[in-house]
Amino acid sequence: MTLKPHTVLLLLALAASLASCGSSRIKDGPPRSGSVFIPELPDDAVPRREPRSRYGNGPVYEVFGKRYTVMPSSDGYKERGVASWYGKKFHKKLTSMQEPYDMYAMTAAHKSLPLPTYVRVRNLRNDKSVIVRVNDRGPFVHNRIIDLSYSAALKLDMVGTGTSLVEVEAIGFDAPSGDRPTRRTITAAPPAPVPESQPDPEPAAATAPEPVSSHKIFVQIGAFGDRENAERRLSKLRSGGIGTGFILEDRSSNAALYRVRVGPIKSVVQYDILIEELENLGIMDPYLVTD
């Protein structure tokens, strides 16, 4: 994908801002500088019945001038996007539920799911998955959907990269670990109450190469019953400088469906750039798919 001038400037500005953190801010990271070792990885969180927390559940809250709304229920929640993780900078500090954050526990932060909620997070790059308990708010960074604890990120093999493309799905407290909840995809409502501290946009170790994917990942821009509508969407992508789009004809059902996709997506950086390009074209509902 060819980077537009404004995209290049945005990335350079982001790199400069991260490099200028200096001594005025404590950088986040693993337990010891350059270390990804803990004595023993914890078991996944076990979904169980818990009362809704008195803290962190809004129903509306504001962070950095933006208002977020807490979902009334986690039932049917399923979303794909970018996960990040937070570590020693916030270890033992209070979460939005007023519990001490434990970087070695299987927990996570989410902007809008009720607290607490149990979710299954699957790394789309390698198909590894974990179950975590959402007890915090965040990440308040554009194009990020969940912030994982250090241990959860380590089990998903994403500590070195800092971020990864994932699928997040809410599960009931009484569902066995191998079961899937009802598959009803919804758009995550904007997030809930402000925690004591917020994670940095990216952990310090986010420059490592991404793990090799066992399958290809694409961004789907739309699915149409009419080929002409799919062609118009593809033409819009190309007019915006997105040249990796294509139409996939799906005849698995009685009527043909024409899926407009872009990819394959090989990194979170590429995904972030693509999302910005799509937003500039007024396309706000892309969806990650795997092949």
Return the domain count: 2
Count of helices?
Answer: 4
How many strands appear in the DSSP assignment?
A: 12
Rg calc? 19 Å
Q: What is the level-2 CATH architecture name of the largest domain?
A: Beta Barrel
Structural class: alpha+beta
Distance between the termini: 20 Å
Write down the CATH topology of the largest domain.
Answer: Barwin-like endoglucanases
Q: How much helicity do the residues have? A: 10-25%
Report the order of strands and helices: HEEEEEEEHEEHEEHE
The biggest beta sheet is recorded as: 6 strands, mixed, barrel
Could you tell me the strand content as a percent range?
A: 15-25%
What descriptive keywords fit this protein?
291 residues; alpha+beta; Barwin-like endoglucanases; Alpha-Beta Plaits; 2 domains; 6-stranded mixed barrel; 4-stranded antiparallel beta sheet; 12 strands; 16% helix; 25% strand; elongated
